[in-house]
């Protein structure tokens, strides 16, 4: 009871009312802080080829939403799907193709309908010196050329199979990597003469590599979808991040990185 308990009954009643009215100011503040903490972070799982633009978009999102933290996880799209289906706490998933997004959708793990937001095509990445003198897709099949590609289950690997078919050329890669970033790494480290990567990866790599375009690449245009996860505890924040990616700010960043617009 409050200190005025020995005063007249009317004063006591008033004092008690004051005590009762003061208690809600304490408990909700802790609960509100908890809700804020939960809603002030969003975890984004994105294809490896999106690392550069999504890192920039995440910074813009945090600046536009003070106190918000964006956690980014980049890997091959198929690897990310495996992580998510096994319970990884993703709020947003951005894939380098529709096939992997469709897998999550079929499993009932997507909230709503995915939104397509960008396109990408393959190019040949060689070292700046290009000691193997590669100038066409057909050159990749020549004896002695060490070429690296993505594994078939990865979007860039699926695109590789399509351009092989379009070109009528079968490659004999020295390795198949789990992400386009790993393919680029083999080229920049000198372990491979050439690698099939996205045009955006060559742009991001700067003067470490040069890209060689080939006409068959337009037979394998990858479309990138993005969606919120059904299990997300931060759907409002997840949808806000998606809105930035698909809005004018995101389109500018993606365009600067070399992605095609939709």
From TrEMBL:
<comment type="similarity">
    <text>Belongs to the bacterial solute-binding protein ModA family.</text>
</comment>
<dbReference type="InterPro" id="IPR050682">
    <property type="entry name" value="ModA/WtpA"/>
</dbReference>
<dbReference type="InterPro" id="IPR005950">
    <property type="entry name" value="ModA"/>
</dbReference>
<feature type="signal peptide">
    <location>
        <begin position="1"/>
        <end position="17"/>
    </location>
</feature>
<dbReference type="GO" id="GO:0005886">
    <property type="term" value="C:plasma membrane"/>
</dbReference>
<keyword id="KW-0500">Molybdenum</keyword>
<keyword id="KW-0472">Membrane</keyword>
<keyword id="KW-0813">Transport</keyword>
<feature type="binding site">
    <location>
        <position position="49"/>
    </location>
    <ligand>
        <name>molybdate</name>
    </ligand>
</feature>
<feature type="binding site">
    <location>
        <position position="198"/>
    </location>
    <ligand>
        <name>molybdate</name>
    </ligand>
</feature>
<comment type="subunit">
    <text>The complex is composed of two ATP-binding proteins (ModC), two transmembrane proteins (ModB) and a solute-binding protein (ModA).</text>
</comment>
<dbReference type="Pfam" id="PF13531">
    <property type="entry name" value="SBP_bac_11"/>
</dbReference>
<keyword id="KW-0479">Metal-binding</keyword>
<feature type="binding site">
    <location>
        <position position="77"/>
    </location>
    <ligand>
        <name>molybdate</name>
    </ligand>
</feature>
<keyword id="KW-0614">Plasmid</keyword>
<feature type="binding site">
    <location>
        <position position="180"/>
    </location>
    <ligand>
        <name>molybdate</name>
    </ligand>
</feature>
<keyword id="KW-0732">Signal</keyword>
<dbReference type="GO" id="GO:0046872">
    <property type="term" value="F:metal ion binding"/>
</dbReference>
<keyword id="KW-0826">Tungsten</keyword>
<comment type="function">
    <text>Involved in the transport of molybdenum into the cell. Part of the binding-protein-dependent transport system ModABCD.</text>
</comment>
<dbReference type="GO" id="GO:0030973">
    <property type="term" value="F:molybdate ion binding"/>
</dbReference>
<keyword id="KW-1003">Cell membrane</keyword>
<dbReference type="GO" id="GO:0015689">
    <property type="term" value="P:molybdate ion transport"/>
</dbReference>
<protein>
    <recommendedName>
        <fullName>Molybdate-binding protein ModA</fullName>
    </recommendedName>
</protein>
């Amino acid at each position: 009871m409050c200190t005025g308990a020995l005063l007249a009954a009317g004063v006591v009643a008033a004092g008690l009312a004051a005590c009762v009215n003061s208690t809600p100011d304490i408990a909700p503040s802790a609960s509100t802080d908890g809700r804020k903490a939960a809603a002030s972070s969003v975890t984004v799982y994105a294809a490896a080829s999106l690392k550069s633009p999504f890192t920039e978009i995440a910074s813009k999102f945090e600046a536009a939403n003070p106190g918000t933290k964006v956690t980014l996880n980049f890997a091959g799209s198929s690897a990310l799907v495996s992580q998510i289906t096994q319970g990884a706490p993703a709020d947003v998933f951005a894939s380098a193709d529709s096939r992997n997004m469709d897998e999550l959708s079929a499993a009932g793990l997507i909230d709503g309908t995915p939104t397509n937001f960008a396109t990408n095509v393959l190019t040949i990445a060689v070292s700046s010196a290009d000691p193997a003198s590669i100038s066409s897709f057909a050159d990749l099949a020549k004896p002695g050329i060490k070429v690296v590609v993505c594994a078939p289950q990865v979007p860039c690997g699926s695109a590789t199979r399509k351009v092989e078919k379009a070109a009528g050329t079968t490659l004999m890669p020295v390795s198949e990597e789990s992400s386009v970033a790993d393919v680029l790494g083999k080229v920049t480290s000198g372990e491979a003469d050439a690698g099939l990567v996205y045009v955006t990866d060559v742009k991001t790599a700067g003067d470490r590599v040069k890209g060689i375009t080939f006409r068959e690449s337009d037979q394998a245009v990858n479309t990138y979808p993005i969606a919120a996860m059904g299990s997300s505890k931060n759907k409002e924040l997840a949808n806000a991040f998606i809105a930035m990616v698909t809005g004018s700010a995101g389109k500018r960043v993606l365009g600067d990185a070399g992605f095609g617009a939709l």
